[in-house]
Write a structure and sequence with these properties.
Strand content of chain A: under 5%
CATH architecture of one domain in chain B: 3-Layer(aba) Sandwich
Mean pLDDT of chain B: 90
Order of helices and strands of chain A: HHH
Low-confidence stretches of chain B: 576-591
Oligomer: heterodimer
Low-confidence stretches of chain A: 111-126
Helix content of chain B: 25-40%
Radius of gyration of chain A: 45 Å
Largest sheet of chain A: none
CATH topology of one domain in chain B: Beta-lactamase
Largest sheet of chain B: 7 strands, mixed
Number of helices of chain A: 3
Shape of chain B: elongated
Distance between the termini of chain A: 144 Å
Radius of gyration of chain B: 35 Å
Chain lengths: 126, 591
């Protein structure tokens, strides 16, 4: 009799309701996990953006630094210093190597006519 | 009283409800009433407004040769709130900041003690060191030293063209030269970005706020040709060493366009070592110094008289044998000349002839031509500090002014004004506006603005200019006063000037002269006009003439410039012996 009474008091499993709540829980949990995952992804991407920007800044700065050094080392003053120290030398261009659109007049009688040249300046200095 | 289950539940629920109501009330109070206060507190701890520096524009010459550019550096600073172990941080950072570890430690420890968030450790740290230090700090698990990106201006050519390019102050603002006059264009506009940082001081990228990209400054291209500038400066340097003057100036201009091709002043300074420079060395005397021009001014009176039809090429002027009494004073020539044409007055540089031309013309007309040639007003060149010179109106002239001004006395002009006046003759009578900026372009190289040549006015007609030009060619001949300005293979036109140096206290210095030569070449189709002005050269008085001091410097500059510009010679060179003979004869006659 007791057994009969116990059997009567047991509630039947309401599977549909359990399934519903499980679904809600899974959906809510999934949404939460997705949210956290997205936030993490966003954060990771942010870190990568920051790192890439840092690298870009570094490359730009290095590039600028090297460009400045190249300019300084190849400047007119630097070349002049190298020329004076004998590190580099200037080789005169042969007349035969110069192509002129309007050929210069050729000296006639005394051969004095020439392109201006500092080395042949005949004028005495005061 | 007995508590039954129902009342106990009600009391418990009410208590819990009250507690949560209290919490809610507090939350509302914090979130609404004290929102601003706590937001500001959070922002001050985590949010910063990051400045994104704009790059200052470059300055280059007409061929793209860089004259001033930026080198990336950074200002290193310590954030005391992020540092836990000052000793460890100082040990890692000291080699990269090139500082004594103990000094650095003390600085950092001070920042930590005061919880100071910005203590500058060192300015102008090379960019390379900042990257290496950041890595070293990360590797050691340390934080608290950060960098503000910055840049310093460097001048690859040192002191060359220093007066024109100028320099910046410690706030990176131009204070002289193009750096000052073009500051607005060169500077650009800094950007900004609002960012939030995490507990470790790293930026949280997802919380980036408002942002504005920096706008880099425009690049300025000058009309200066560094090839010609180098020639001019080298010759001026040689002259400065040899003659030891107070100062020297050379200016070269394209008379057809008004473009300044070269501009140099001595003494000069090193723009990357400003601490060693004196104010006198920093003056661009081509535009801020005024001198009495001397005989170079005679082109004004000659051109004016011809243009007004007061005289023609045949008119003879009595030069009184070298002594002319006027206004109770005697005006002298260096030689006694008789009747001379305008051509010969210019060629021989006769003071009396010039004075008589001005007298024929009258005060007002002469004054008008002085102004038309550009004297007494700023040329408007894009350089700061230009002065107008000093030309008094006829109402303020005394009786002698009309005879003194034609020979370049009683008037004060800048070297640039002299060059532009000579450019009028070289350019067929038209006065061009001198300019030194060729174009402005953005960082991608796109030209934003190009500066075109501007005709200010037609001062004299082309026929007058041609007549004066022929006379100026003869000035640079064995008959004239400036044979030493001659350049083989070319016709050179020009005029010498020798003036006593004005004493600012009044009167003139005894035995001190400002000697000059301004000329152009080739005379038939001028490629450039060049002035060489030497202030008080240390040479004997009998040699202190424009024709003897400045003319040879001009010759050397013009000769090298012709070769540089590949100008074809058109004349047969005069044999050396003839030139030398003429020179020895002239050395005691020119002024």
């Amino acid at each position: 009799m007791n057994a009969t009474r116990r059997t009567k008091s047991i509630n039947p499993l309401q599977l549909s309701r359990i399934a519903f709540y499980l679904l809600v829980a899974v959906t809510a949990g999934g949404a939460g996990i997705c949210y956290v995952s997205l936030k993490n992804t966003q954060h990771t991407l942010g870190q990568r953006v920051r790192e890439t920007e840092r690298q870009l800044r570094e490359y730009r700065a290095r590039n600028q630094d090297y460009a400045t050094r190249i300019t300084s080392l190849s400047s007119r003053m630097a070349l002049q210093r190298k020329l004076e120290s004998g590190f580099i030398a200037m080789i005169p261009v042969q007349a035969t190597s110069i192509a002129r659109l309007t050929p210069p007049e050729v000296a006639t009688d005394d051969g004095v006519l020439r392109t201006a040249s500092t080395s042949t300046n005949p004028l005495p200095r005061p | 009283m007995r508590w039954n289950a129902h009342s106990r539940i009600i009391i418990a629920a009410a208590t819990i409800g009250l507690i949560f109501t209290g919490f809610s009330a507090r939350l509302i109070h914090l979130g609404v009433n004290q929102h601003a206060e706590y937001s500001a507190l959070a922002a001050s701890k985590n949010s910063i407004r990051q400045t994104l520096r704009a790059k200052r524009g470059l300055i280059s010459d007409r061929n793209g040769e860089i004259l001033a550019e930026n080198m990336p550096v950074a200002t290193a600073f310590a954030d005391g709130t992020h540092i836990e172990n000052p000793e460890a941080v100082a040990r890692v950072a000291a080699p990269f900041l090139e500082m004594d570890p103990e000094v650095l430690r003390k600085k950092i420890a001070g920042a930590v003690e005061r919880q100071d968030r910005y203590v500058v450790l060192r300015h102008e740290v090379p960019a390379e060191f900042t990257f290496e230090l950041t890595r070293a700090m990360e590797k050691a698990g340390l934080r608290g030293i950060y960098f503000n990106a910055d840049s310093v201006r460097v001048h690859p050519n040192g002191s060359m063209l220093c007066h024109v390019v100028g320099f910046l102050n410690h706030e990176r603002r131009g204070v002289q030269g193009i750096e000052l006059s073009m500051e607005e264009y060169l500077r650009g506009q800094d950007g900004f970005r609002h960012i939030e940082r995490d507990r470790k001081g790293r930026e949280i990228v997802v919380y980036r706020g408002q942002e504005r990209e920096p706008r880099d400054g425009l690049n300025v291209q000058l009309t200066i040709d560094m090839g010609l500038q180098a020639i001019v400066e080298e010759e001026l340097d040689n002259a400065f060493k040899e003659l030891k003057p107070d100062n020297a100036v050379a200016v070269m201009v394209n008379p057809k366009t008004g473009e300044v091709l070269a501009m140099a002043t001595r003494p000069a300074f090193e723009p990357d070592a400003l601490g060693d420079a004196t104010p006198e060395q920093m003056k661009n005397r081509a535009i801020i110094d005024m001198v009495e021009p001397g005989s170079t001014f005679k082109i004004v009176v000659a051109a004016a008289a011809l243009n007004e039809g007061i005289v023609d090429t045949e008119t003879l002027i009595n030069c009184e044998g070298g002594r002319f009494a006027y206004g109770g004073r005697i005006l002298r020539d260096h030689h006694g000349y008789g009747m001379m044409t305008v051509h010969n007055i210019l060629m021989k540089s006769s003071n009396i002839g010039s004075a008589k031309l001005a007298l024929k013309m009258g005060d007002e007309t002469f004054y008008e031509y002085v102004k038309r040639f550009g004297f007494g007003e700023r040329t408007g060149i894009e350089l700061p500090g230009e002065i107008a010179g000093l030309v008094h109106p006829p109402a303020r002239w005394d009786k002698l002014t009309i005879t003194r001004m034609p020979m370049g006395h009683a008037v004060a002009v800048t070297p640039l004004q002299i060059v532009m006046a000579m450019s009028v003759i070289a350019n067929g009578g038209k006065l061009m506006a001198p300019h030194i900026i060729k174009s402005l372009s953005d960082s991608s190289g796109k030209v934003i603005q190009e500066f075109k040549p501007t005709v200010v006015r037609e001062v004299v007609n082309p026929q007058t200019a041609a007549i004066v030009s022929r006379a100026l060619v003869d000035v640079v001949s064995p008959k004239g006063t400036a044979i030493l300005a001659k350049v083989d293979g070319f016709q050179v036109a020009g005029k010498t000037g020798t003036a006593e140096k004005v004493n600012p206290a009044g009167g003139y210095y005894d035995g001190k002269y400002v000697v000059s030569f301004v000329g152009y070449m080739p005379a038939e189709d001028p490629a450039f006009v060049c002035l060489v002005l030497v202030d008080n050269p240390s040479i004997p008085s009998h040699l202190n003439y424009g024709g003897l001091v400045s003319a040879p410097i001009f010759s050397r500059i013009a000769e090298r410039a012709a070769r540089y510009l590949d100008i074809q010679p058109v004349m047969r060179a005069e044999p050396v012996t003839e030139v030398a003979a003429n020179q020895s004869e002239r050395s005691t006659t020119t002024r």
